[in-house]
Design a protein that fits this description.
alpha/beta, Spore Coat Polysaccharide Biosynthesis Protein SpsA, Chain A, 16 strands, globular, G1P_cyt_trans-like, glucose-1-phosphate cytidylyltransferase activity, NTP_transferase_dom
């Protein structure tokens, strides 16, 4: 089963780094967040990826073209114009298709453009900026159980600020540091989709999160898989720093591999 990753946006909310590189190439622990996402799927034996490129997509192509150079010992023989790559610990069982899906194409349009690589098969889809400790096998089993066209992973993000519990005279009864947003579930990515979903997308200017998902919901063809574990989207520099600290602590919750 193929895994489609949306990696073409501008990442304007994290412009401190995205003006230099595409957002999925921003590093956590000296590895692009894209690598972390792919490692999660690979842990569950999903190794066939289709990555939708847009803004500075050539940098993602160059990363995979030089993948062994990043983690291997190499010998350059300049006299013979040759390169020898020695043994590497970074051998992945990945098959990676890098698809140019346009600079200004919306998320739905990007998905539509890679239909030729999916064919008539069920496929997975996620965003190139979010990590989670989601069990992909359980997600797939859930999708198969309900028989609908789409499954979306629903998550509860942590709030940025602490919450005070007060009584009528303003006495503080409790303090909850960065609680999950009460009774609010949001789109966390990590979709599983049937190929019929392509028919819900008209063209490049369609955001997948708008008309296509709204129509699927209206027709009762999308079901939420509730994930109560760790999930974090790298929207801002603050998010990047938080993920970096988790990784450096050796206790990154999304590191299931």
């Amino acid at each position: 089963m193929k895994v489609v990753i949306l990696a073409g946006g501008y990442g304007t909310r994290i412009s401190e780094e995205s003006h230099l590189k595409p957002k999925p190439m921003i590093e956590i622990g000296e590895r692009p967040i894209l690598w972390h996402i792919m490692k999660t799927y690979s842990h569950y034996s999903f190794n066939d990826f289709v990555i939708c490129l847009g803004y500075k997509g050539y940098m993602i192509k160059e990363y995979f073209a030089d993948y062994f150079l990043h983690g291997s010992d190499v010998t350059f023989d300049l006299a013979k114009n040759s390169l020898k790559i020695h043994s590497s610990e970074d051998v992945e069982e990945w098959r990676v298709t890098l698809a140019n899906t346009g600079i200004d194409t919306m998320t739905g349009g990007r998905i539509k453009r890679i239909k030729k690589y999916i064919g008539d098969e069920t496929f997975m889809l996620t965003y190139g900026d979010g990590v989670a400790d989601i069990n992909v096998h359980e997600l797939l089993a859930f999708h198969k159980s309900h028989g609908k066209l789409a499954t979306v992973t629903a998550v509860q993000p942590s709030g940025r600020y602490g919450v005070l519990g007060l009584n009528d005279d303003a006495t503080v009864l409790e303090f909850v540091e960065k609680p999950n947003t009460l009774n609010t579930w949001i789109n966390g990515g990590f979709f599983i989709l049937e190929p019929e979903v392509f028919d819900y997308i008209d063209g490049d200017d369609i955001a997948f999160e708008k008309e296509p998902l709204a129509k699927l919901a209206e027709e009762g063809e999308i079901v939420a898989y509730h994930h109560s574990g760790f999930w974090k989207c790298m929207d801002t520099q603050r998010d990047k720093v938080a993920l970096e600290r988790l990784w450096e602590s050796g206790e990154a919750p999304w590191k299931v591999w």
